[in-house]
Amino acid sequence: MFKYLTIGIFFVILALPLTGCSSDILNALQQPQKAVEQEKEAGKPAPENNADKNTETPVKNTESAAQPEKVPPAPKQENTTPPPTLNQGTGKKTDPGLKLEENKPAKKEEESIPVVANPASIQVLVNKQNKLPDSYNPTDLVYTQVPFVFKEQSDKRKMRSEAATAINTLFTEANKQGISLLGVSAYRSHATQVSLFNYYVNRDGYEKARTYSALPGTSEHETGLTIDVTGGDGKCAAMDCFGATKEAIWLEAHAAEYGFIIRYPKGKEAITGYQYEPWHLRYVGKAMALEIMSKGITLEEYLNAIPVNN
Fold first, then answer.
1. Inter-CA distances, 116 with 127, 139, 144, 218, 273, Å
2. 307 lies in some domain
3. How far is it, in rounded angstroms, from Cα 301 to Cα 263?
4. Assign residue 43 a region: left if phi > 0, alpha if psi is -120 to 50, beta otherwise?
5. What's the confidence (pLDDT) of residue 242?
6. Do the Cβ atoms of 263 and 234 come closer than 8 Å?
7. How far apart are the C-alpha atoms of 259 and 226, rounded to whole Å?
8. What pLDDT does 7 receive?
9. Contacts of 273 (CB under 8 A, 6+ apart)
10. What is the number of domains present in the chain?
11. Which of 40, 89, 110, 175 is most open to solvent, judged by the fewest CB atoms within 10 Å of its CB?
């Protein structure tokens, strides 16, 4: 009896630590599950079990939305300035972006040209060596009564009173003889001559322009005593081909009868400074005109003036 009691006590003593250990082990196994249940109750997601997942580190996306957005470069501004064009007179390129000043001639050469003493004289000599005052404006300008190549009423129809009367008569008498004429351009103000000369310089170059267009102040058109004419059909206006027309031939023979001369005759370029212009009529008065035309001389030669020579 004592023997069995002793064996029973031994097993009870032996079982006590095992029972405690088992309890600890059970509690340890139950802790994670309890933590999960507590976190669920608190609204937190349960920790993931990565045991069955690929443990390789994922490649970071470098184009993530967290990266600042790249701003595309501003579009290249297109150059709207046209390329330089070749100046036919100088052979050099002209930048169209550079605008000529309309109120200033291309060069200041005219500043050294002597100014005529009596700009209002009917016989005034105006050429490359004798210029009108910049402020000169004829006080007796009137509209001529002759047809022009244009319809509008402009200052280009005007001439000084005495010259206007003479050109009216010339046109009338020419028409009676079967010669039809049209005016192209008569009076031209100083400001207009400035703009016109600069236009020719820009187009053909300074030296070329000087052979057919006058520096401001040296144009006879500014005197109010000059008119350019052409045939009734309007062809060859201010062109070399006018010289071979019947109208040009008639003017050569009869213009002096009305007080006009062919101001720039053929073969006199070294004296007048201008090429032959059969259309350019200058009023000087009948007596002087008859003498000049009959002798085949120029106004410079009649007045014993120094030849222009350019």
1. 10, 17, 26, 10, 18
2. no
3. 12
4. left
5. 96
6. no
7. 11
8. 53
9. 127, 128, 308, 309, 310
10. 1
11. 40
Write the CATH number for 251: 3.30.1380.10
* Angle formed by the axes of helices 246-254 and 161-176, nearest 10°: 120
pLDDT number for residue 305: 86
For residues 236 and 245, is the Cβ–Cβ distance under 8 A?
yes
- Does residue 273 fall inside a structural domain? yes
Residue 183: phi, psi to the nearest 5?
-80, 145
Contact 246, 272 (CB under 8 A): no
DSSP 252-301: HHHGGGGTEEEEE-TT-HHHHSS--EEEEEEE--HHHHHHHHHHT--HHH
**Residue 117 belongs to some domain of the structure:** yes
- Res 59: pLDDT: 38
Q: Which domain holds residue 296?
A: 85-302
Single out the residue of 111, 109, 122, 127 nearest to residue 305, CA to CA.
Answer: 127
Find residue 185's DSSP bridge partners: 228
Mean pLDDT per 10-residue section of the chain, whose length is 310 residues: 50 45 45 49 46 39 41 44 41 38 50 92 96 96 97 96 98 98 97 94 93 90 98 92 96 98 96 94 98 97 81
Two tokens, residue 211: 């052979």
Alpha helical stretches, state H, the chain:
2-42, 161-176, 190-204, 206-209, 246-254, 269-272, 286-295, 299-302
pLDDT of 211: 79
pTM of the model: 0.65
- pLDDT (0 to 100) of residue 263: 98
Supply the pLDDT for residue 118.
96
Report if residue 179 sits inside a domain: yes
Q: Return the structure tokens found at 212.
A: 């057919």
Residues 6+ apart with CB under 8 A from 11: none
Task: Say if CB 129 and CB 110 are below 8 A apart.
Answer: no
